[in-house]
Known about the structure:
It is built from nine helices and five strands, in the order βαβαααβαβαααβα. It has 190 residues and is an alpha/beta fold. It has a single domain, classed as Rossmann fold (3-Layer(aba) Sandwich). A five-stranded parallel sheet has the order 2-3-1-4-5. Bound molecules: adenosine monophosphate (AMP). Residues 10, 32-33, 36, 53-54, 57-60, 65, 86-87, 89, 93, 136, 146 line the site of adenosine monophosphate (AMP). Residues 10, 32-33, 36, 53-54, 57-60, 65, 86-87, 89, 93, 136, 146 line the site of adenosine monophosphate.
Amino acid sequence: MLNIVLFGPPGAGKGTQSEMLIEKYNLIHLSTGDILRKELANETDLGIEAKKYMDQGLLVPDEVVIGMIGTQLENHIDSEGFIFDGFPRTTEQAIALDNLLKEKNMFIDAMISLQVEDKELIRRLLERGKDSGRADDQSEEIISNRIKEYNLKTAPLKAFYDKQNKLFEVNGLGSIDYIKNNIHSVIDNL
Ligand code: AMP
């Protein structure tokens, strides 16, 4: 089994790289952002509640996303592994994930962290906002909140996984193929 946390700030390229990883390694892609947007599109209670936070670029409460991940792990228990994209985003979530996995005799093999500077993130997100239809990609103020949330609550998780000797940093600047190859070489050397 192979379980990877694909990590990085909003706009680092986690979604794009996840799509390629799931194909090569036959993994399940678990993106909490995608799941929340689906809930929102279906106008579920959870989606409507989450929208209040997402529209401001703030993190949705831990218990909501932890519950979603627990359900997804149960639903794909026979898979060859998972790419966690956009989760965990707080220490609380990282501890909960370790516990959920432990119950199933599973563990995280690596956190692969994509490094991209803030100016480039803002440029990419505004560009994506032109046709992604995502309200949170269209305003510099919301984008700036998302980056602030990342720096304050999410970036400290690098130390969390580093302590477990599972942190691998990859340059997130360059062509999609260049970044993909660097990620593959991390995984192939695990
Ligand atoms: P993303 O698609 O990963 O950029 O996530 C979009 C938005 O969904 C974020 O700005 C948060 O409001 C919410 N979200 C996604 N994943 C999480 C998470 N793990 N914890 C809290 N909020 C999340």
